[in-house]
Amino acid sequence: MRTLAVVGGGAVGLAVAWQAAEAGWTVTVFDPAPGSGASHVAGGMLAPLSEGWPGEDRVLEFGAAALAAWPAFGERLRAVTGESVFVADETLTVALDGADAADLRTVADWLAGFGHDLRVLDRAGVRALEPALARTVRAGLRADTELAVDNRRVLRALRAGCAAAGVEMRAQAVAALDELPHDRIVLAAGARSAELWPGLPVRPVKGEILRLRHRPGVRPAPSRVIRARVHGRPVYLVPREDGLVLGATQYEAGFDTTVTVGGVRDLIADAETILPGIGEYELAEANAGSRPGTPDNLPLLGPLDERVVAATGHGRNGMLTLALTATLVPALLEDESPALAELAAPQRFPALRLSSSGGVR
Ligand SMILES: Cc1cc2nc3c(=O)[nH]c(=O)nc-3n(C[C@H](O)[C@H](O)[C@H](O)COP(=O)(O)OP(=O)(O)OC[C@H]3O[C@@H](n4cnc5c(N)ncnc54)[C@H](O)[C@@H]3O)c2cc1C
Fold it and tell me: Cα(41) to centroid of ligand 1, in Å?
């Protein structure tokens, strides 16, 4: 039997473990606290188009392919637990001033060049779609193919999938990869991956995020993802069964995951600017997590040496790109070279020293 160690039991590690076990590997996941990292706090937007920006063509290509893979991947997750992981099926990005409205048109024109036709809405068009939004909203960009997931349902389904496929879970931190006796190793330790492979260009990017619960008598929450920039800060609302997820701040703050008063204040104030009724919700949870960021906002998927394959660096898009990572990494373990994996190959960073096997060190 071929043995595989997966280091890290976040959404990425669990998805790879599940798919590799189904492909015939004997898999052990090492994680002292599986599902407790960024995957637990995430918003769950699958928004490669709305988050796109001219120049980030490769990020768009990878993200759009991941979005296209989600319906089938979501169906496989639903088959495991019986519950759908999807919570919305489109995104509306709104503009509060003329400069933001011009940006929406810039993004729409750029996306059209890649065959993604998104509609720019005027004030009346936005109000017709989402009457609860503030009257100050003057334009919107509607991405009617962008889904959103409940990240915690995704984690539940991945855990169930792993259990059904016979994956062994070990509640143990790995101190050094060369202590593991397995035939192959997948490094999926999220923002902490560089601790196990020094020089890997993955760094923590802190994000604070809130969960708001709907209360009886309060106007219903929007049924689609709403995104905006307020005072230059991004803010988004992602539907949940019982309310909304409101995210997210973004700082370079090392591995700090405290929730600050300033972060919560800004999130609520910015959200209230686009959805005035939000003060009526119950503030159910405040969390912070570390996004595993890379310099070019693409993940790192591919061999680091003869034994170790990276599945990390998913940054602010790990829930989105999960659907692709779950198929690309098992293929890489079979020494195949799927075309899309090229975009995420670790070797794209020339500063990394190549090992004798063509991996990076
Ligand atoms: C506030 C916030 C909002 C986000 N919103 C979105 C969103 O809307 N859409 C989207 O697509 N993405 C979003 N993301 C990004 C997404 O959450 C991440 O990209 C994704 O969860 C990364 O998954 P992961 O499994 O690589 O990392 P993690 O979920 O962080 O898991 C890593 C795991 O590795 C384990 N580990 C670490 N070191 C070791 C070790 N030495 N030995 C064993 N195990 C170890 C940890 O315990 C942890 O469980 C958001 C992130 C944050 C923080």
Answer: 8
CATH number, domain with residue 324:
3.50.50.60
The pLDDT of residue 107: 98
Helix (H, G, I), strand (E, B) or coil at 168: strand
Supply the range of the domain harboring residue 209. Answer: 89-147+204-293
Ramachandran region, residue 335 (left: φ > 0; alpha: ψ -120 to 50; beta: rest): left
Ligand 1 center to residue 188 CA distance, Å?
9
Residues in the chain: 361
Q: Is residue 55 part of a domain?
A: no
- pLDDT by 10-residue block (mean), the chain, 361 residues: 96 98 98 98 98 97 98 97 97 97 97 97 96 96 98 98 98 97 98 97 98 94 95 96 96 96 98 96 98 98 97 98 98 96 94 49 44
**Site residues for ligand 1, CB cut-off 6 Å:** 7-13, 30-34, 36-39, 41-45, 173-174, 188-192, 196, 207, 209, 247-248, 289, 291-292, 312, 314-320
Pocket test for ligand 1, best of 29, 187, 319 (most atoms within 8 A of CB): 319
Q: Rounded CA gap, 50 and 42, in Å?
A: 17
